[in-house]
């Protein structure tokens, strides 16, 4: 049995109930999410061969501090960085370090800023220098998977419709969908109910209702879907070392569809690829 609760009366922890937010909350999310989107836009100018992922992390931290925001990942469950940088076969939660990006790499940069208590969560893929066509195609398929998932969001549909839209498209493109990680409710909490699976069937999962806010963040692999987490407890990689990509938006369910809070103000939702604000 799925419980829905007015967010203004909900306790400050994930109880399993799905929060329904009001117009004031949507405005708070717009501010947080647009700051995150602006940071991701700015990163497009600095991602190039030779850049250390630690330098990306410092850029994100400084950008947040300069704009009155705090990186949600910093000190979250022991995580010590302000962002996640996931390169090539790293699926998600890659930890910034002192290794430089190389020509031909693809890197996901995941940023969540907390602004006035609201969490703006988004990630994008960045090609580093000149990438191979297979990598470019993976980015295209992954972005399109995200946008097809978003297009399935409307009141009365179920969360499974999002997963079905993503899975059907990605697998038709001979790619696979990672099952070990999912999207999630977000707002005053960094991670909240419901989980948003990126695979499934349209008649499965909780009903989508106006006021829900959550992330959609498919991880798509060129090879098989299986992943493993490394000894650091965070970094997830493809077991077959195939390339993996991810794009993430935060959305709010409206009366007739959804609002994408994290759209790029500069049209850079796909950095290094042709602009396409779906």
UniProtKB/TrEMBL annotation:
Pfam families xrefs: Peptidase_M24
EC numbers: 3.4.11.18
Top EC class for this record: hydrolase
Annotated Peptidase M24 domain residues: 27-254
Record-level Gene Ontology MF annotations: initiator methionyl aminopeptidase activity; metal ion binding; metalloaminopeptidase activity
Essential cofactor(s): Co(2+); Zn(2+); Mn(2+); Fe(2+)
Keyword Hydrolase: yes
Residues passing through the membrane, by range: none
Residues given in the record as a divalent metal cation 2 binding sites: 121, 184, 217, 248
Biological process according to GO: proteolysis
Domain of life: Bacteria
Coiled-coil ranges per UniProt: none
Binding, a divalent metal cation 1: 110, 121, 248
Catalytic reactions on record: Release of N-terminal amino acids, preferentially methionine, from peptides and arylamides
List of residues binding substrate: 93, 191
Keywords recorded for this protein, A-Z: Aminopeptidase, Hydrolase, Metal-binding, Protease
CC terms in the record's Gene Ontology section: cytosol
Keyword Nucleus (UniProt): no
Subunit structure: Monomer.
UniProt family annotation: Belongs to the peptidase M24A family. Methionine aminopeptidase type 1 subfamily.
Protein known as: Methionine aminopeptidase
Gene: map
């Amino acid at each position: 049995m799925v419980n829905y609760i007015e967010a203004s009366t909900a306790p400050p922890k994930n109880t399993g109930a799905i929060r329904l937010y009001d117009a004031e909350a949507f405005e708070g999310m717009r501010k947080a999410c647009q700051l995150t989107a602006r940071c991701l836009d700015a990163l497009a100018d600095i991602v190039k061969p030779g850049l250390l992922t630690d330098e990306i992390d410092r850029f994100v931290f400084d950008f947040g501090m300069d704009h009155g925001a705090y990186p949600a990942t910093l000190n979250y469950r022991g995580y010590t960085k302000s962002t996640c940088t996931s390169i090539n076969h790293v699926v998600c939660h890659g930890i910034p370090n002192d290794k430089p990006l190389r020509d031909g790499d693809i890197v996901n940069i995941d940023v969540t800023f907390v602004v006035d208590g609201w969490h703006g969560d988004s990630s994008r893929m960045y090609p580093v220098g000149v990438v191979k066509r297979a990598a470019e195609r993976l980015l295209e398929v992954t972005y399109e998977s995200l946008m097809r998932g978003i297009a399935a969001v409307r009141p009365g549909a179920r969360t499974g419709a999002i997963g079905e839209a993503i899975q059907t498209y990605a697998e038709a493109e001979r790619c696979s969908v990672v099952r070990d990680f999912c999207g999630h409710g977000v707002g005053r909490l960094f991670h909240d109910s419901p989980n948003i699976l990126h695979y499934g069937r349209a008649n499965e999962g909780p009903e989508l209702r106006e006021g829900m806010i959550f992330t959609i963040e498919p991880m798509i692999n060129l090879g098989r879907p299986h992943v493993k987490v490394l000894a650091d407890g965070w970094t997830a990689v493809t077991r077959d070392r195939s390339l993996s990509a991810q794009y993430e938006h935060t959305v709010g369910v409206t009366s007739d569809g959804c609002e994408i809070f994290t759209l790029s103000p500069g049209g850079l939702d796909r950095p290094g690829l042709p602009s396409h604000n779906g």
